[in-house]
Known about the structure:
The protein is α+β, with helices and mostly antiparallel strands. The chain contains 11 helices and 37 strands. The longest helix is centred in the last third of the chain and has 20 residues, at about 675-695.
Amino acid sequence: MMVGTGRKARYLATFAMAAFATAAATPALAQQKPAISRPPAQQVPPPSSAAGLASADLFHLRSVADPQVAPNGKLALFTVQYADRIGAPYTRIWTLDRATGATRPWGSAQGVEGDGPRFSPDGTRVVYRGGDGLILADADGTNARPLAPMDDTNHPLPRMGDRYTWSPDGTRIAFVSATPSTVPEMEADPIVITRYWYRPARGFPDRFNDNKHLHLFVADVASGKVTQLTDGDYYEHSPDWAPDGKTLLFVSNHEADPDLTYNADIFTVDVATRAVRQITRTKGIEWAPSWSPDGRTIAYSGLKRQLTSSESNMEEPHVWTLDVATGTAREIGQVVDSTQSRPLWSPDGKWLYFTVQAHGSVGLYRLPYQGGTPERIGPSPAMRASVSAFAVAPDGDVVAAMATPGDLAELYAFHGNAAPRALTGLNADLLGKKKIAQVEAFTFKTFDDRDVEAFLTMPIGYDPGARGKYPLIVVIHGGPHGQQGPAFSAKNQALAARGYASLMVNYRGSTGYGQSFANLIARDQDGGEGRDVLAGLDAAIARYPWIDADRLGVEGASYGGQLTDWLITQTTRFKAAIPWAGISNLVSHNYMSVYHDYLQQEYFGKPHEDGINDMLWGRSAIRFVDKVKTPIMLSHGDADLLVNPAEDEQYFTALHDVGVEAIMLRYPREGHGMRETQHIADFLDRSIDWYARHFAAVKP
């Protein structure tokens, strides 16, 4: 049910979400093979001449991801995401000369179109994903040749680690690929469905789970020969070679019925004999394991709770280690009470590096692998920046993708205690000509006297002495276990350019404030967190007298859409509302979503147990639709199966039944989040028009 602002939404980690969403996410969900895009024939508009950001500018923003440092430390590769085509964004590979700091497209003047570049152990070659498989090239990008095809599944499996990895001697590459379905084709007449998890990750072009399974393969680099290592009705992923090259770590769910119980554990497979051995046997979840350089320790991301979900978890993931000789596991990340990313080893094996969410930003930390006191590598909290991906060089320095309040993710170098140094300025020409709105943080007391943090984006050129002049839009994050912060948001910047303030509230349940704060939303959806948002709105109006309390709007995506649907049943103070992929009926959502177990871990039981269905119905917006007076523009991706479009359809009908102005936008080919840039631009323009029309009726 999460969107890019939610904390486990990897399959939405695209330009669309980086540029349009408002919060930093932490790994884990599946990077599904994108749906086939068939956009209408359109032309990419040139950048706008407006002083502030406009929808046309979205096609010309770029962002950095996935830095990788060569074994000798001299070069680094990273990907740049482009949106300068009609349709979904795409990536090209770039290179960095670490000695000079010079960056340029890799392999050609335009760069190689592909993603996931990984250096060979000797640094002479690179493997990356291009087209439908793995491509092998020299380290300078020349002599590229196909190595092995890779297939995927539409099964919405959480995956957190890499899909392929070099053997220590550089002669083989282990990778994950799908094997053909072992059940009858879904195009039979009639289609007979027996599987509990019969839905795919997206509804276009597929209608049902393709029943393919993911397994481990090894490709010989010299000959191209491919050998399958695992089989069965499982989904293996996240491989990592042991230092001796004899075994591979991986993650799989071997419960009796994996569809009914999501419990990912760590396994190994002997590459020579194909013998599989289970390493962990917990009721919690383990993700993204990796060997220490000496092979004595395994680091991974883990959860402890026994009631988990394949979609998201109320428990915040921490860094763990496991002693290979004794099997002893330690939660070394417990010293930092916040959401942590997958851990990466330092080249010398002494440290584990990971990111930590805190107060709307994401910092980079390291811990001794034996446990101990964490060290913050950077950036300083004063930068209000968010690290999204990083690599540790042999000299101990770090190369990272990092977003700031003034820009999407660019490439930065971290050295000692010095401030991070920008290595790229991909958006400098565009954003350098734009006025960027200021974002200010403040803390307020909510209804139960707790401290809650909020972030206000000011209108560009606002007059702080003008009382009641500027309208405000409340922008609610998804998850609900996610966070918002000061990092660059194209939507908020575009609103600011039109004279709107925007308010983001990290309500109870948000990450970045500790586990106890995240727990406060348990069994209380559309409850205390909604009151937090309204309390934050009151605090903002009191703090900033220039806000027009009569011209207020509200919007959000996924859980933010759900809360938008709900809040307009509780108050009439909003003059316009725009939910994206909101849940209007928690009961129907549970049984129509691809993630049947999402509400189970939020309410500590399945909906039919312990009166939970009554609780869900009592907090469903559609139950109170007769209280709604706010004009609403419902919006949804046509291929969304995380939150079924029927959630909008039933609310739309109910709103018309009670006489509320309501329209419904449906974007073809889009899933739970928007990917195609022309759709993002269209939605931005329609949103601003919707607010302008309904605010104008209050005060010209």
